[in-house]
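Box S1 | Example of a co-folding query
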Amino acid sequence: MRFAFCSRTGVPFTLSILALLVALLGPPCAHALETVCIQCHGSQPGKGGVPVGQWRGSIHEENGISCHDCHGGDPRDAVNAMSPARGFIGAPTEKQTPAFCGRCHVGIAEDYLKSAHGKALGTGGPTCVTCHGSHSVTAATLDIINENRCGMCHSYERAAAIKDAMTRTEAMIAGIDAKIRLLKGEGVDTDSREKSLFALRNTFRRLFHEIDTTHVEQESGRIRTELSAIDQSLAQYDQAKQQRKFIGALVVGALLLAALFSHLLKKTWN
Ligand code: HEC
Ligand code: HEC
Ligand code: HEC
Ligand code: HEC
Ligand code: HEC
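Box S1 (continued) | Returned holo structure for heme C
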């Protein structure tokens, strides 16, 4: 489409459209999030500049969460940017970190504070940044649970049990998700199944931070039972599909037979 448009109207016109777009939306590569924080810190060597590079490409940048969203301050005033009067709260200490991240991740911070990790905050327990980092935060996966990290302060056993239960459940969720998409593509009404799966996935993704091995195992088991029920109800669609195929084949066969029969009948008649 676009190429046809280019060749018909000529390059200069396309360029002027582009120029107009750039004028309206800003240059495509410059970021909508450019702030005085990024400008000043980005030009600092060493410690002050490092966070900018780490934050770029993070899930926070992707979702529009910038320096001032976490640290406060005024992102538009280079002189007073880091003034407490403009809401600047600086970098959190280890003990302040869960509340710092928990302003946005409310439920998770609650679960964490109740957990053995939260109770050991400041006395050898991990904080959010031990597991997620502070600036190079990426989408959370079960890969975060590994022997290097989780064997650092205690034995890996309990972590491994949590990971095992969660990995099996996650695989099941992915499998059912794929089936639903396939059926949806074939025009099957999968709405209620999608909703059930969505709710189960949310419950599942809320499991980790309490790091209660027994609870994770029990809840994962319960979730898998409910997933099986969804899976079985999807299998019914498959059966119905097979049946429809079979009946379709029967009808086609019958029609062919009828055609053949009438052909033979016509022949004998003639
Ligand atoms: C004009 C340059 C400049 C601007 C603008 C600026 N900073 Fe800074 N920032 C610095 C310097 C220099 C330091 C290190 C010296 C210090 O700790 O006071 C620093 C330190 C920090 C620290 C570490 C403080 C600590 O407690 O260790 C944070 C966090 C921070 N800046 C965030 C921000 C945020 C968020 C903004 C925008 C709202 C911002 N900065 C704007 C220059 C700047
Ligand atoms: C998701 C929240 C979050 C965002 C977004 C964020 N920071 Fe931070 N930042 C932290 C945390 C937490 C710390 C405390 C250090 C730690 O625990 O690793 C920190 C520490 C710092 C420090 C002190 C570094 C040090 O080594 O003492 C500076 C400077 C800083 N951040 C600047 C920035 C700048 C500039 C940006 C934007 C590019 C930014 N931060 C974005 C959470 C964030
Ligand atoms: C001991 C390591 C550890 C600590 C401490 C930790 N997390 Fe997590 N976090 C994980 C793991 C592992 C997952 C992935 C769980 C999953 O895939 O279901 C995760 C998932 C997440 C998610 C995604 C959840 C979702 O609904 O998809 C967020 C957000 C998050 N953590 C934020 C935090 C915050 C905020 C804190 C501090 C209050 C924190 N985490 C403390 C390991 C940790
Ligand atoms: C100003 C709000 C805000 C603060 C403060 C904040 N985050 Fe986030 N965070 C978000 C948003 C928005 C997303 C993207 C949407 C989502 O996945 O929840 C996100 C995503 C995440 C994810 C990925 C979730 C996933 O789906 O896999 C993790 C992990 C995470 N944040 C950890 C942290 C940690 C650790 C801190 C503290 C250092 C922190 N966040 C501070 C707003 C915030
Ligand atoms: C910075 C140190 C540290 C790191 C890293 C760490 N833990 Fe822990 N963990 C603790 C402390 C302290 C306790 C409480 C004392 C204990 O039970 O060993 C604890 C307890 C636990 C418990 C027992 C909870 C209970 O209620 O009995 C589990 C499970 C656990 N951690 C899982 C993990 C997993 C999974 C990871 C990696 C994603 C991890 N830990 C990383 C320090 C750590």
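Residues 1-15, 18-30 have pLDDT under 50 and may be disordered. The two ends are 59 Å apart (CA to CA).
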